[in-house]
User: Which sequence fits this backbone?
């Protein structure tokens, strides 16, 4: 179980396909950088989802964001509420809170009675098959990615790959993918 520096609550949503993220900051905290970091992470998820071939995943979107004092709320649309997605959102909040212990608690309002247990476990490792060769020669905390395209030659053809990688890198920087084996505290900024 991942230890968080803030309380995490989960409530069942009455509206299928909607996620509500409520973030309550501690008193006397400069909210600007924390909220910008969280918002940047959520927008990166939205941009990556838009590239998905699955229309249910591609439909992930930010509907609204509100503020009331130290309480911030994001309304998200997501036809498929995946526990791994919610864990990534919690990780983004966790990463934004590390510098100054700014977050007091978060509440996720989303469907699924079994989400409490799955959220406590954190994100699952990526297990996927690809129609191309993947060489994994990592030797430490740094990652170098080299893509060799067979038939992609113009900037316009490469643009979706560049955008996807930039959003993936943003999420990694914000700590969205950390888990029990790779805790946030071991990652450097």
Assistant:
């Amino acid at each position: 179980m991942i230890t968080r520096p803030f309380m995490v609550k989960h409530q069942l949503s009455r509206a299928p396909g909607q996620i509500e993220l409520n973030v309550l900051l501690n008193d006397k905290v400069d909210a600007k950088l924390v909220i910008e970091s969280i918002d940047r992470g959520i927008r990166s998820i939205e941009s990556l989802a838009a590239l998905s071939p699955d229309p249910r995943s591609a439909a992930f979107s930010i509907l609204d964001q509100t503020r009331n004092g130290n309480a911030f709320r994001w309304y998200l649309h997501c036809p498929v509420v995946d526990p791994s997605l919610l864990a990534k959102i919690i990780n983004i909040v966790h990463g934004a809170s590390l510098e100054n212990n700014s977050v007091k608690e978060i509440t996720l309002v989303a469907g699924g009675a079994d989400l409490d247990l799955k959220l406590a476990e954190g994100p699952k490792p990526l297990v996927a098959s690809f129609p191309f060769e993947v060489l994994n020669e990592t030797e430490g905390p740094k990652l170098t990615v080299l893509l060799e395209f067979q038939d992609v030659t113009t900037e316009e053809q490469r643009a979706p790959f560049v955008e996807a990688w930039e959003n993936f890198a943003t999420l990694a920087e914000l700590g969205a993918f950390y888990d029990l084996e790779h805790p946030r505290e071991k990652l450097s900024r």
